[in-house]
Amino acid sequence: KQWYQRRVVITAGDVTINEKLFKFSMENLGVDGKQVVELQNEGHHQFNRVLDSLKHTEIEVTLKEVKSFATDPTILSKTFDLVSQLGKDFMNRTVSYQHHEGQDSWNIQIDFWAYLLPAVLIQQEKTEVVQYPSFASEAGCDADDCPDLGVVYVHLHRGEGLTIGDPEESVDPLVNVYLNGTKVYTSNTYNSRTPILDEKFEVPVTSSAAYPNLFTHILKFEVWDHDTFTDNDLIGSSTLQLSHGAQFNKMLVLKQENEGDYGSLYVSVVFKPVPFY
Questions:
Q1: Segment 43-62, tens digit of pLDDT
Q2: Per-residue pLDDT tens over the stretch 234-261
Q3: Model pTM score
Q4: 3-state SS, residue 277
Q5: Which member of 22, 73, 187, 225 has the lowest number of beta carbons within 10 Å of its beta carbon?
Q6: Is 102 exposed, middle or buried (0-12, 13-18, 19+ CB in 10 A)?
Q7: 47 touches 24 (CB < 8 A)
Q8: What is d(CA 254, CA 12) in angstroms, rounded to the nearest whole number?
Q9: Cβ(116)–Cβ(253) under 8 Å?
Q10: Where would I find the H helices in the chain?
């Protein structure tokens, strides 16, 4: 059966500090961008990071003391490789650090966690799509406090009645998928008006100022007619709003500028929150 594999999808940590102002950063090595959090006073602080790919499982954490009118000195810099923990249901690793400067001293403890999300049990055999429900494959969360950090699993199933121009003309469709305007996937090219795609991929998602909760994230599916010697022609597109509930074998009507009917695309979309519920 062609099922999604379990994999580490997040590192989350807790930092306990006292009486100092720190700048904490976490970077997934080999991937652009890092998460920086400023920490002040004693307390319990949490940070999160989704792993974009298992190709890059090294996490580098840096802790700097914030100094006015001076370069912030680095007091902790560590690299952790999560690959050795992939076979476990979850991992936990603690780093403790004590700093002494004259009569001044403080303690820092950082706990690192990595979670494995369960498989999404969806199988496709030509035009037939079957879901194998279980607690692990269907469990999500509907409560208001459901985290908006996690992974979206997308399964492109098939196209139906794809139409462009002359109905007798051949069509070579491919699918581009965008999350909030950023392309995240391009399918193979097919030579059929009713292509069987059976392609799947996953996209990490998290909330931000522009997208404060899961319902503000939009997947857009564009179906194009591939041309070898000229520009590709748009057959049609459709959008899908993310939700906490599974959207299984959903039919999307393809339109151009929100008009017409240029065929259909069938997809399944499942969001898995982290921590997993």
A1: 566 666 666 566 667 777 78
A2: 999 999 999 888 899 999 999 998 888 8
A3: 0.73
A4: coil
A5: 73
A6: exposed
A7: yes
A8: 39
A9: no
A10: 135-138
Around Cβ 211, how many Cβ atoms within 10 Å? 17
Residue type, 109: Q
Where helices occur in 3-141 by DSSP H, the ranges are 135-138
Burial 110-135, CB ≥16 within 10 A → b, else e: bebbbbbbbbbbbebeeeebebeeee
* Gap between the Cα atoms of 27 and 36, Å rounded: 9
- Token pair belonging to 7: 């994999």
Amino acid type, 186: T
Residue with tokens 């379990």: 6
3-state secondary structure of 72: coil
Tokens of 220: 């857009």
Residue with the two structure tokens 């049990």: 121
Categorise residue 193: left if φ over 0, alpha if ψ from -120 to 50, beta otherwise.
alpha
